[in-house]
Structures are given as C-alpha cells and as structure tokens.
Amino acid sequence: MQRIRSAQLYEEAQQHIVGGVNSPSRSFKAVGGGAPVFMKKGQGARFWDVDDNQYIDYLAAFGPIITGHAHPKITEAIVRAAHDGTLYGTATEHEIRLAEQLKAAIPSMDKVRFVNSGTEAVMTTIRVARAFTGRNKIIKFAGCYHGHADLVLVAAGSGPSTLGIPDSAGIPPSIASEVITVPFNELDGLRLALERWGDQVAAVMVEPIVGNFGMVMPKPGFLEALCKMTREAGALVIYDEVISAFRFHYGSSQTFSAFPDQDAIRPDLTALGKIIGGGLPIGAYGGRADLMAMIAPLGPAYQAGTMAGNPASVLAGLACLEVLREPGVYTRMEAMATRLCEGLQASADKHGIPLTINRIVGAFSTHFCDHPVTNYEEAQGSDGEQFAHFFRLMLDRGIYLAPSKYEAWFLTTAHTDADIEETVAAADASFQEMAA
Ligand code: PLP
C-alpha cells in the first residue's frame, strides 16, 4: 500500500504544526515512527486517506464515533445547526434537552454543566471537589488517563505512556505533590494512601471501567470498596466516564449490569465527553446538586466557556444518543466484537503468538503477552514491538487500529459482518507473517 501523499503532507505539516500532529496520540511515534496517515473522508465504518487507500476503522476517533462516520442523523443535526447559526453566546433549549437525557441515563447527576472537552470536564470536577471539601490532594490510579490538565498528567495512561512521558515537563513539583497515584484493581495502595493523607484528600478520581491501558474491568468489589473507603475519609468519588459513558450500554459504568449494587458504586461527580458530542467537541460534568452548586453563577468556584453547550455539538450529541437508543444497537456491537475477538485469538494461537484480549461489549484491547491484564503494570508488560509490527501489517491490509499498544479497538453501529470477516482474515495473514 502506497502512502506517498501522506508522507508529503507529513513533511509539510511538520513545518507548521508541532510534530506535524495536533494531538500526540495521532503520531506514529509509539509504533515505529514515520508519517502518520492523513485521512480525507469517512463513511460508516470506513475511511479513506489522501492516497485513496481505504481502511476499516477501529479507532473511531479514540472513541466518539460510535455510530460510524457521517451518520445521516448526525449529519442532518449538524447541518441544521449550521443553518441556524453555530454560536449565540446565550442559553438555548437544546442544552436543556441534552442535559435531561444525560441525567435520565446517569442518575447520579442531579445537575450538569457542558464544557468543550473531557479534559475540561475532569479539571472542573477536581475544582468542585476542592472547593467543597476545602482539601487539595487527589488520588488517582496508575495508567488512567484523565486529559492533559496539570494535576492528572502524572502516571497517566495511553498517550503519555507510549510516548515515554510519565510525568509531563512543565508541571511544577508543587502541583505534582498534590497527586497521589496508586495501582488500579488493588485496594491496599488506596487504603495506605488514605491512611496517610486521608484528611487532605479532596477526591479519588478513577475510570470505573478503564479504557487507557487497554480495556480493563474493575475486579468484583473494587469500586464498592473504593467508594466506601473514600467516603470514610471524607473525600469525594469522581468517575471519569469520558470513554465509558454510552460505550457499553445506554448509560455509563455506574449503571452497567456488571455491577449489581449500583448504590454502592454511585459517584459524587462524573466527567463525560467523547460519545455525548456525536463527533463534535464536547465535555460535560455533573453530580450531586449540593456539589454542583459550588459552581458559578451559583457558587464561588469559577468555570466558564465561550463555546460551551454550542448548538452544533449539542444537536450532534442528541442525534447520537437517539441512534444509541435504537433497540439492539449494543447487542449487535457486542456480537460483532465477540466474533472478531474469537477470530483474533484463534489465529494468534494457531501461529503461536501470545495474545491476551480484554473485551467489554463492543470494545476491546489486544495485548501481546501471555498473562492477564488487570492493571497498568501488566499492560506495560505486553510486547510493544510486536504490537507495532502487527499495527503496521494490519495498516497495509487496510485495517486501522489506534497507534498504541494501550489503546482500544472500538466497534461502531456501522461495522458489518463483512468488515469483521475481512479483519479476521487480515489478522490471520499478519500473525502468519509475524510468526515466520
Ligand atoms: N478522560 C478519559 C478517560 C479519556 O480517555 C480522555 C481522552 O482520551 C480524556 C479524559 C480527555 O478528553 P479530551 O481528549 O476530550 O480532552
């Protein structure tokens, strides 16, 4: 497969855009470097690059594109927004409708505020927690990524990990010292941290189902104990559901059937993003009414946004949720993901390539290792060079994976049985080549 135009554009991009990309996770640094692919068009589960190569898309733009590219309902919503004016700087009725729908699906959110990205959503939940508790410290889990705000960019998952930047430069030690990082899926670290610093901890922040060092479920009882211990310390529980909300079912982790006792895992605050904007920029945070009342104009904690709740993002989000409410949507994505994972595993086994697959409904991660992956350390222990080799072989066969061993494969409502068959065949040929 030739990607001459992509290579040319990459040369050009580097002269104007730092590193040639507007988000480091789009670069191919973690998979051997070189020019990333420049795309020009997407339709359904496929997209096309500037050299006219076609790919089946499992990146789904790192999660948001759950209905596939250019879904007619979402396109129609965006066109409507464009016709009516994209920004007024005033309140609109659309924002109320999306807030209502988020609250109905995620009942721990009494009140919602829209922002422009997951990063902003997370950042502000921390501000709310600090304002409410009068405490400064945050506990987070190794490998969970919560966006690029200073506080949460410590030991932070997929993007930074693959680039070898566990702690970003430019973050003052005074800020880093307010963050305590403990292992996911293991309660001793959290218990010790709370014993030592509990009375200074404003919040414990977690991806309740992890999407940033592969797809990783919390072990049975982990979230329940996390919530209990955090509350006993007088701190708040913040769920970062930027990936997990509306990914596995119509709702979020906190309403997912895998967790039978939903009262026991109810967070105080939740951060959202990605899917809820239907592919346009968005973030949202919400939670208990008394906590959300800390935010201006009601309370003393300030947070604002020129673009926040803009009609285009909100209407696209409403259209996306409408598609996700159609019967059978998640069951279908799960059935396809299951078949795909079975095919990948059988083929890897046949060619003697160690492969651990973590699948949750229609999303999964592939780890080149022969041990389970339940925490960041185990994910780090998978073979990055083998992943990079596999990534390149799949790319040349027209299958687009996220360019990092830590990132997930996402099914969309647009993937078809034929896509799955083509992907399994491409993987079989790739594993065969790797084994040779
Ligand atoms: N939280 C999680 C769990 C994420 O995966 C991400 C992005 O990948 C973010 C927060 C940050 O969201 P955004 O990139 O929209 O700022």
TrEMBL record:
Species this chain originates from: Cohnella herbarum
Name of the featured protein: Glutamate-1-semialdehyde 2,1-aminomutase
Gene label: hemL
EC annotation from Swiss-Prot or TrEMBL: 5.4.3.8
NCBIfam families with a match to the protein in the record: hemL, PRK00062.1, PRK12389.1
Similarity field: Belongs to the class-III pyridoxal-phosphate-dependent aminotransferase family. HemL subfamily.
Compartments where found: Cytoplasm
Main localisation: cytoplasm
Pathway(s) per entry: Porphyrin-containing compound metabolism; protoporphyrin-IX biosynthesis; 5-aminolevulinate from L-glutamyl-tRNA(Glu): step 2/2
Gene Ontology molecular function: any one: glutamate-1-semialdehyde 2,1-aminomutase activity
